[in-house]
């Protein structure tokens, strides 16, 4: 089958997560044709490659069509070594995953960081559609980000563009920020991720109250009049606003699209824009903060859309 024929049939997107591998098949215009999830093998890298190969084979046999393949990776392919780096699924680190998958599937594949794929999905046909500069934020177990300009993912010289979660928390001034430094898994202290992730919010609440609630539970409790939950959420939103304000001062996106588990907190949309504006350099209006349209399936859709970037000449081959 010719290369052009493949591009005209369907796009396959695959999201490689720590616990599951998900595949989606998109038809013309982004219509979803099939979706499937399988557990992520954890013992051997070769098992991950085989699991992806088998998912693609099953999907194509079921639909009776062959597709292009894009991969959302919880890390990045190093431009220097060609090997996976910065992956929280450590079994992938140090392997040429794009080349190994191309060999296993018998075709070229496109690989991008999962936060970049989230941003591309939402910029293509999600909450950020129609905006030129879109910054996608994944706020959950960690803090990730991806930047799209003109429908194109900006990867950067070192494949770390958008990794704002590993900048230091800006302008620490609250008492606990000054007295309780947080060590990040990356080896640095007080990264934004250590203060603004879901586990960080839960830990702040537990330390104050001795009770266990996740991020959405804390927001719900605050809305129901829990003063301690409200105080923890207020401090959390202040930190998040400071963190995003530095991003806005550098990129000035037309839209910021929230993803991840914390994106279900309504205060991100009702309170955060005004707080960000307070910390920004002479903005003329609050930044546009939007909830994702495609939910936790957004990254896998973005992986499928990677081929549209290449077809339009958006990324170097």
Give a quick summary of the entry.
The chain is α/β, with parallel strands linked by helices and 317 residues long. The protein folds into two domains: 3-119 and 296-311, Nucleotidyltransferase, domain 5 (2-Layer Sandwich), CATH 3.30.420; 129-292, ATPase, nucleotide binding domain (Nucleotidyltransferase, domain 5, 2-Layer Sandwich), CATH 3.30.420.40.
Strand content is 15-25%
Q: How would you sum up the global shape?
A: globular
Widest sheet, order of strands: 3-2-1-4-7
Give the N-terminus to C-terminus distance in angstroms: 21 Å
**Number of helix segments?**
12
Extract low-pLDDT stretches. 1-8, 312-317
Q: According to CATH, what is the class of the largest domain?
A: Alpha Beta
Q: Let me know the number of strands.
A: 12
The whole-angstrom Rg is 20 Å
CATH superfamily of the largest domain: ATPase, nucleotide binding domain
- Main sheet overview: 5 strands, mixed
Content-based structural category: alpha/beta
Query: What do we call the CATH topology of the largest domain?
Result: Nucleotidyltransferase, domain 5
Number of domains: 2
Helical content (DSSP H or I, runs of 4+): 40-55%
Provide the residue-averaged pLDDT. Answer: 91
């Amino acid at each position: 089958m010719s290369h052009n024929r493949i591009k005209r049939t369907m796009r396959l997107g695959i999201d490689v997560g720590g616990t599951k591998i998900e595949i989606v098949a998109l038809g013309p215009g982004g219509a979803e044709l099939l979706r499937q999830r399988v557990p992520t093998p954890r013992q051997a890298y070769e098992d991950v490659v085989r699991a992806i190969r088998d998912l693609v084979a099953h999907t194509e046999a079921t639909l009776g069509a062959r597709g292009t393949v894009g991969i959302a990776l919880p890390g990045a392919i190093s431009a220097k070594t060609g090997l996976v780096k910065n992956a929280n699924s450590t079994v992938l680190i140090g392997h040429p995953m794009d080349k190994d998958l191309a060999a296993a599937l018998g075709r070229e594949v496109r690989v991008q960081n999962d936060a970049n794929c989230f941003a591309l999905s939402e910029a293509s046909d999600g909450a950020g559609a129609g905006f030129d500069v879109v910054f996608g934020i994944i706020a959950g177990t960690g803090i990730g980000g991806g930047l799209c300009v003109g429908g194109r993912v900006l990867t950067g010289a070192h494949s770390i563009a958008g990794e704002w979660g590993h900048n230091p928390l800006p302008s620490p001034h609250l008492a606990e920020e000054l007295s309780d430094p947080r060590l990040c898994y990356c080896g640095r202290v007080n990264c934004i991720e250590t203060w603004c992730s879901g586990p960080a919010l839960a830990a702040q609440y537990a330390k104050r109250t001795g009770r266990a609630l996740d991020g959405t539970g804390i927001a719900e409790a605050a809305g129901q009049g829990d003063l301690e939950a409200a105080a923890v959420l207020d401090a959390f939103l202040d930190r998040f606003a400071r963190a995003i304000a530095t991003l806005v001062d550098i990129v000035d996106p037309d839209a910021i699209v929230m993803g991840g588990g914390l994106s279900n907190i309504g205060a991100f949309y009702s309170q955060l824009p005004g707080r960000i504006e307070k910390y920004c350099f002479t903005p003329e209006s609050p930044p546009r903060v939007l909830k994702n349209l495609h939910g936790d399936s957004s990254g896998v859709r973005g992986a499928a859309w990677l081929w549209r970037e290449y077809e339009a000449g958006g990324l170097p081959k």
